[in-house]
Design a protein that fits this description.
The chain has 3 helices and no strands. It is mostly helical and about 90 residues long. The chain folds into 2 domains: about 50 residues; about 35 residues. The longest helix has about 30 residues. It is rod-shaped. It starts with a helix and ends with a helix.
């Protein structure tokens, strides 16, 4: 008959061995590449949608606002010139 210490040692070795095998399976599985693959696919999909970054969008919004201001000022000047010619 085995002593209690021997049984505990065997159980500990078996648990350690199982833990090592599970770790090895995880390291060798395609699951570790899943996030990388999904991220790559999403990036490619976004590129096909021709999206812009938030910084680019904000910059273009500012440019558009300035252009509208200039257009409004020019329209006012044209209207003033037309009044003078009439």
């Amino acid at each position: 008959m085995q002593k209690p210490n021997e049984i505990l040692e065997q159980m500990q070795r078996a648990a350690t061995e199982m833990q090592n095998k599970v770790g090895e399976v995880i390291r060798n599985s395609p699951a570790k590449d899943l996030e990388k693959n999904v991220r790559t696919m999403m990036t490619q999909g976004f590129q096909k949608l021709d999206l812009v970054t938030r910084d680019e969008f904000d910059l273009q919004a500012k440019v558009l606002a300035k252009t509208r201001e200039k257009l409004t000022a020019l329209e006012a000047k044209v209207a003033e010139i037309e009044k003078l010619r009439s």
